[in-house]
Each structure stands twice: as C-alpha cells, then as structure tokens.
Specification:
Elements (H helix, E strand, L loop, with lengths): L2 E4 L12 H9 L2 E4 L2 H10 L6 E3 L5 H13 L3 E5 L12 H9 L3 E4 L6 H8 L6 E5 L7 H8 L5 E6 L4 H12 L4 E6 L7 E6 H10 L6 E5 L4 H12 L1
Parallel strand pairs: 1-4, 1-5, 2-3, 2-4, 6-7
Antiparallel strand pairs: 7-10, 8-9, 8-10
Length: 236
C-alpha cells in the first residue's frame, strides 16, 4: 500500500519551505499540484524534479479513482496547492477522505498556512476561534452572516481583494460598526501589513486605499455580556 503526503508550501516567502517538505517532494513518485505552472517555479527553485500532475477543483472528481489505484499499488503521492496547506480552502479534502475510506495512509506535514499568523497578529482572542474561509458569493451569504452575528469566538475569513470593501461594509452591517477587526494582507511577503481597528475604521482605511494581494480578515466575537443583554431583550 502506498501513502499520500499533504505538503504545505510557502504562502509568500520561500524561506518558509521546510526541509522535510523538500525531502518528501523529492522522494515521492508523483506530485499533484493545483496549478503546475505555479508549482513548477517552486520545484525548480528547490531543484525538485519529481513528475507533476494537475489536481484541482475542476478535475479532482474525475482523477480520484486512478489516484487511489496508484496508491493501492504501492506508489507514494504528494499533494500541494498553489500556496499554504492543501484542503484549507483549496483542493485536498476529497482525495484525503477517499484515502481514509480505502485505508490508505495519509500524512499531513506541518507548515505554512495564512490564517494562523493572521489570527495571532490580530491581537484578538485566539484561545477559541472559528475558521469560515471564503463566504458564499451570493446565495447563502446573508444567512451565514445572520448565523454568525452572535458568535462569541473570534472569526476568520479569507477575502479576495476586490471584495474586501464590500465585505467590511457587511461586517459593519451585521456585526456592528464598533466590532474589532484585523485585516492582514500579503502575509510573509515584501508588502505585508496588518490593519487593526473597529469595523468602521478598517472599512474607511481600505475605501481610501484599495487593497491588493492575498487577504485574511479576523473579526472579534460578540462580547458575552452583549449577547446576554440581547437575549434578555428578546425575552422581555
């Protein structure tokens, strides 16, 4: 029986690549990459010559059966995404689940992912948090906000740059203008920055300075006393 390795890759700074990740990518029989053009540059930088196949959200259902057959025959396969840890808002869950269902060993290496440094950088409570990833585009977006409106844990969202201002305006609408928000942009890269403040303050910042790059938004949870007061008001 073969083995599937889930291998995180840098979200920006190539120095975040681990020695173990490089070794695994050199030793496996096949690398599955979200975008072979993007990953090709990474592999070239670290002098990794292992053969690559494309594995992304548009073809993963079609390729699963063949990959399971290869793993069952004894091959070792590594899965990487364009950046960060596969299966975190990237392809990877379906293959991992199918391996588990077929008693194929899965080994996820520790490594880079965007939401952890964004959470720690935020200065918001991180003993308990909820990772929401990307919000629904249209259908279900409002429903998700309403479900999270009284969430007391810190919330983490992935946001594309052209939707950040809209999303921050929605934070003001659904969570309140005074809710604590931290937006981290271009983590580990040259122009990395984190903007902290109330939802309204952060919204005004990015209205004046349109954002670029990869973005993680961290939102403080509703204070317990505020939630309690709302519940009391509803009961009256």
């Amino acid at each position: 029986m073969g083995k599937l390795f889930i291998v995180p890759t840098p979200i920006g700074n190539l120095e975040d690549m681990t020695f173990r990740a490089i070794r695994v990518l050199k030793e496996v029989d096949l690398i599955l990459a979200e975008d072979t053009r993007t990953s090709g540059k990474l592999l070239k930088h670290f002098e990794i010559s292992t053969h690559m196949h494309s594995h992304h959200m548009h073809n993963e259902h079609k390729t699963i059966a063949n990959l399971i057959t290869r793993l069952q025959s004894g091959e070792t396969i590594a899965l990487i995404s364009d950046a960060g840890t596969p299966a975190i808002s990237d392809p990877g869950f379906l293959l991992t689940r199918t391996c588990v269902e077929n008693n194929i060993e899965v080994d996820c290496l520790p490594g880079a992912t965007a939401f952890v440094p964004a959470l720690v950088n935020s200065g918001l409570p991180n003993d308990k948090f909820v990772f929401e990833g990307f919000l629904p585009e249209k259908k279900g977006r409002q429903t998700r906000y309403l479900a999270l409106a009284e969430e007391t844990r810190t919330m983490i969202f992935y946001v594309s740059p052209h939707k950040l201002v809209k999303t921050l305006a929605e934070f003001v609408q659904y969570f309140g203008a005074d809710r604590a928000v931290s937006v981290s942009r271009e983590l580990s890269k040259l122009h990395e920055e984190t903007i902290r403040g109330t939802a309204e303050e952060v919204l005004k910042h990015f209205e004046a300075k349109p954002p670029k790059g990869e973005i993680v938004a961290v939102v403080g949870g509703m204070l317990a006393e505020t939630k309690s007061k709302r519940q009391e008001a509803r009961e009256v």
